[in-house]
């Protein structure tokens, strides 16, 4: 089996890895780099089957529904076979109504925890992992007597942390190559808060806010949605979510996740989403939420007893609702977004409205100490870092590391330490 990391050896995001065996090929992720504003302008990797159908390309694995791992998938031929989790596919399908970042796939094989899939010379075994994206997988790929384990993105401190412990307690045996994410390598080596650690932090913020806290959080970070809902329940406030988030929760098919019809949840339709529904005439999606809706005219009345899920695109709605008195903004995303020049108008909006800004977040990726535990679990494998910036630090931290360049082909038979 031969390997080419087309992108990911020196950056976080844009991951794309090609495997070749017996003239057949498998691709692991087809991500959009984080710094690319226009997905249509970014050149596709020189992989047969990307520009036009090619029988030798047997499939493209999407490890999880984050754009830096699937963001170029919509540009591949519609005949392309994609391997993705069932709930992850449903989330991206539902998101397509709301955002260009959604994705509708036509030829899909579903990944399911530890259930192998055979594609030509490849056997792909998915391992459900803990990550900030719902329905995320690592994969074991076997071909030609070689065994490669690709971690995708994962962590050990989320709501599915038991999956990380299960993996390191009983990893696949005789793995030759560990393609290992290293997002947090080079950052401060500290223990990250768990999702449950964030609950009392949020409660304290809610207690100190007479008006309505606006919690900035991705509608697809469903672990965080659960965290915010639990904090609302603990403090006795209702949780107002937007319809996009309500659709993401519904799409999972998981009745244990908060849903629009639960007590303590109301659904708001921001102007931008309402415009999309009207343009697409998608009323069969919006109509079922009618009994659980809260309208802009009523938000100010209930502000002191509510918490609202929020994104910068909703500032116009908040101004028109007149619900900002004594409120605050809680940044529950990566703090780097505040520094991003694309969000400076939002920062100005927060400042001019005199809204206190709080931070309450934890990483979607494993800490360096947890990565050490992962590396130790695959001690006999050669470790090849991906999805990281500081690969020299990675090589210094772990034994048995091979560094490869973007675009270089290499064979597993020559890897040794």
Q: Could you describe the 3D structure shown?
A:
This protein is of the alpha/beta class and 417 residues long. It has helices at 67-70, 86-95, 161-169, 195-207, 222-235, 243-251, 271-280, 283-286, 296-302, 315-321, 336-339, 344-352, 368-377, 391-397; strands at residues 2-7, 16-21, 24-30, 57-61, 82-85, 108-111, 117-119, 122-129, 136-143, 146-150, 177-181, 213-216, 238-242, 265-268, 306-310, 328-331, 357-359, 382-386, 409-411. The chain has a seven-stranded mixed sheet. A six-stranded mixed sheet has the order 7-8-9-10-11-18. Strands 14-13-15-12-16-17 form a six-stranded parallel sheet. Helix 9 packs across helix 10 (315-321). The mean pLDDT is 95.
**What Rg do the Cα atoms give?**
22 Å
Number of strands: 19
Largest sheet: 7 strands, mixed
> How helix-rich are the residues, as a percent range?
25-40%
Shape descriptor reads globular
Under CATH at level 1, the class of the largest domain stands as Alpha Beta
């Amino acid at each position: 089996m031969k390997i080419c990391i087309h992108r990911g050896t020196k950056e976080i995001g844009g991951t794309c890895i090609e495997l070749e065996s017996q003239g057949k090929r498998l691709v692991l992720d087809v991500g959009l780099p984080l710094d690319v504003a226009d997905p249509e302008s970014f050149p596709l990797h020189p992989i047969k089957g990307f520009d036009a159908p090619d029988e030798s390309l047997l499939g493209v694995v999407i490890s999880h529904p984050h754009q830096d791992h699937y963001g170029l998938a919509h540009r591949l031929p519609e005949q392309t076979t994609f391997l993705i989790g069932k709930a992850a596919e449903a989330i991206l399908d539902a998101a397509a109504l709301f955002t260009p970042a959604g994705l509708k796939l036509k030829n899909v094989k579903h990944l399911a925890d530890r259930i192998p899939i055979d594609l030509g010379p490849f056997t792909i075994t998915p391992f459900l992992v803990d990550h900030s994206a719902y329905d995320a997988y690592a994969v074991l790929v076997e071909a030609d007597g070689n065994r490669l384990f690709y971690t995708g993105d994962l962590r050990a401190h989320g709501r599915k942390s038991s999956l990380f412990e299960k993996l390191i307690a009983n990893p696949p045996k005789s793995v030759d190559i560990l393609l290992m994410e290293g997002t947090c390598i080079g950052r401060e080596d500290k223990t990250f808060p768990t999702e449950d650690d964030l609950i009392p932090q949020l409660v304290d913020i809610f207690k100190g806010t007479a008006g309505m806290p606006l919690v900035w959080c991705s509608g697809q970070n469903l672990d965080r949605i659960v965290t915010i809902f639990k904090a609302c329940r603990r403090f006795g406030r209702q949780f107002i979510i937007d319809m996009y988030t309500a659709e993401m929760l519904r799409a999972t098919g998981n009745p244990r996740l908060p849903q629009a019809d639960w007590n303590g949840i109301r659904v708001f339709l921001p102007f931008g989403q309402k415009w999309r529904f009207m343009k697409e005439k998608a009323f069969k999606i919006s109509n079922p939420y009618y009994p659980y809706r809260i309208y802009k005219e009523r938000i100010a009345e209930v502000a002191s007893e509510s918490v609202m899920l929020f994104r910068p695109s909703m500032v116009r709605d908040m101004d028109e609702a007149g619900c900002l008195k004594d409120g605050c903004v809680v940044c529950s995303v990566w703090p780097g977004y505040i520094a991003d020049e694309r969000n400076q108008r939002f920062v100005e909006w927060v400042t001019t409205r005199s809204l206190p800004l709080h931070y309450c977040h934890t990483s979607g990726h494993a800490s360096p100490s947890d990565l050490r535990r992962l590396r130790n679990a695959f001690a006999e494998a050669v470790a090849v870092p991906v999805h990281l910036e500081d690969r020299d630090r990675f090589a210094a931290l772990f034994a048995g590391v091979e560094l490869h360049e973007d675009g270089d082909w290499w064979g597993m038979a020559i890897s040794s330490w």
